[in-house]
Structure formats: structure tokens, C-alpha cells
Amino acid sequence: MGTQAPSDPNYNNDKVDTRTAEEKAIDAWLPITSSRNAKWWYSAFHNVTAMVGAGVLSLPYAMSELGWGPGVTVMVVSWIITLYTLWQMVEMHEMVPGKRFDRYHELGQHAFGEKLGLWIVVPQQLIVEVGVDIVYMVTGGRSLMKVHELVCKKNEDSIHCAKDIKLSYFIMIFASVHFVLSHLPNFNSISGVSLAAAVMSLSYSTIAWGASVKKGVQPDVDYGYKAHSTSGTVFNFLSGLGEVAFAYAGHNVVLEIQATIPSTPEKPSKIPMWRGVVVAYIVVALCYFPVAFIGYWMFGNSVSDNILVSLEKPTWLIVMANMFVVVHVIGSYQIYAMPVFDMLETVLVKKLRFRPTWYLRFVTRNIYVAFTMFVGITFPFFGGLLGFFGGFAFAPTTYFLPCIMWLAIYKPRRWSLSWIANWICIIFGVLLMVLAPIGGLRSIIVQANTYKFYN
Domains in the chain, ordered, with CATH? Predict the structure, then answer.
């Protein structure tokens, strides 16, 4: 169930804290519950960092797979639905007096039961968070590689410019940063990294659509579907759905972010948290819609699965944008990694009875970073990964699992506005979950046919 609220020194109620001194010490050590002094603006830039990442750069490509009508519809409907489901999660954080559901799986346990809640939520949450970190390894490496290519192209005569460096090495360079940053203890300790990442997301998104406008509509632009067969068009359409789902996924860390905000019965954490969420969603709209629609308008179905790859001039601006992407996905990686660290350290300390020490954390987190780096190097199928993970894991945890929890806990009257809204979200989310991975998996298979491992 949810953790006892008195671990927050600012939270007062009549319930007695029944935890032992050892349990209090462990909660004070774990990443999610160790610090509760965040301000509302922490919520804003943590949510921006969690949501606006690699996904925004693939939105023009997703539009090329979906087409104008379906693409605009799916983008706008997804923005509305995910804002609604995020509001539900913020509201459910402290629905039980004296308790705070600091982790997604704790809310799941309250809704579905101790064991079933774990089995429903934890596998999906892990797939999302580990999957995002793997994709961000690839994104960071590809952006560094793009910077290197552009700089070398501009300085072709330089003897210091190595021309043929493999993507694998750039992923390793990107990973080296996380072998350091992953040892920051909790969410509040990465707030500076997260703020920088949020600023970068707005910056490179603006550069992406601004440079697209500067480049103008291409002479041979084509807005028709790029596949020459019906089956290819359908598979691409499904993959596009997954890429949009990936772009709108930030809910997996919402309760963990809210857990860092202080709360009292008079001033519950949902008030500052929601204020931050509204600001974050305004930023999301400013990033997503211009990039998706303008990028597709300018390049049509010839746009790359990363819009910055389609833009090569002015060189200095595109280099800057790719470096902004690198900084941003550094922050995003940490935001998604922190709940994974919390799960791993909780199991090691509470279940396996390891002592909560710095070297346990050092070994655990380094192994995790090394694992995501290795998988990213092995399977760097960027577009296909987005489509597959977006549908398979992000649709449940973002689009409809909060709605199912809301129906299970609050039990709104049948055919009431709340009941209808939740079922619309559930149906839309289930369709995404079933259909999108098909297109993403096909993209991975097609690219794997011509890919040479570790090349």
C-alpha cells in the first residue's frame, strides 16, 4: 500500500507512524522518499524533461506515416487524454488520509490488491523506464554522431577530424556521463540537470521548426503515403501511432515526482503539482505541435525519423540543436532511471536485506547504466524502437491504466460524464496498445535485415 505520510516532516495528521527506526532510515535513504522539499516549478521542469524528449523529433516522421487528417487528430486527442489521465494521477496521490502513494505500483496495489497491483504495474513501468533509457542512449549517441559529421563536413581539410567513427562509440561517450550522474541520490539532487534539460527541449524544438520554416517547403514535397503497398502503408500507420504514444509518455514518473513535494492537510501536494503540470503541458504544446506540423509541411514524406537529421544548414545552428538534444536526453535519462534505481534498491535492502550503503548504490547503478548502454549499442533501431515501445508499454501506463484505477477506486455512476470519459480513454489506449507495436516491430525487422551488429 502507500507509504506512511509522516516520512514527510511537513505532514501532520492524527495517525501514528508505526515504522521502526530501521524502516525510517531505509525510507530516508531510498531515492523517492528521501527528500520532500520540492517547489511547484520542480514539478513543471521535471514533467517537461520526462515528456519532451526523443519523441518530439520523430513527430514529423510520425505525421508522414499517419497523414494530415489522422495525424493532427491523434496528436490533439493524445494531448487532451494524457492531460486528463495525468490529472487523475495527481488527484489519486493522496486520496487516502494519512498516506501518500509515492510510487506508481503503490497506487496499483491500492486499486487492484497487494499482489495483483504489483504484477499489473511493475512490469509495464519497468518496460517503459528501461525502454526509454535504452532509446535515449541511442538518441544521445546519434545526436553526438550528427554533430561530429557536421563539424567534419565543414572542416574537411582538418587532419584531426576522424571520418568513420562508429555509432557504438558515440553511445559509449554518451553513457560515460551517466556513469557519473547516476550516483546523484534522489530527484531533488537532479533538479539542476532536469531544469537544464527542460530549457534545452524548448530550445531545440524551436530550432527544429524554425530551421524548417527557413528551409521552406521542398520542391519535390509529397504528402502521400511513402509505402508502395497497402500492407506497407498500414504497418507504417501503426508505427506512427506508436511514435505519438511514445512522445506523450511521462506518466510513469508522475507520482514519484509528486512524492518530492511537501504536503499538509491544509496544503496538499496536488495543488503545487497540478500548477507545475499545467505549465509543463503548455510547454509540451509549444514544442510538439509546431515541430510535428511544420516539419511535415516542409519535408512531406521524405522527412527523417529525426527531424534534425533532415536539417543540415545553417551548420552552426543544427550543431547547436543536436547538442541541446544531448543535454536534454541526459536529463531525461536520469528522470526515468531514478524510479528504476528506487525499485532495485528497495528490493536489495528490504527483501534481500543488504545494508543501505554507498557502494551498494555504486555497483547497482553502474550495472544499470552499462546494461542500457549495451542494449542501445546492440539494437539502435531508433524509429522502430519508438513505435514498438510507444504502443506496447506507454499506451497502458499513460492512456488507460490511470482510468482503470479511477473506475476501480471511485466507482463513478454508469453513463456519468466521468464514466464515459474514462471509457473513451480506455478504448483509445487499448487500440494503441494492440495496434502500434505491430508497426514498430515490423520496422525493427525490416531495418535488422540490413543492419550489421556493432558496425
Answer: 46-153+161-450 (1.20.1740.10)
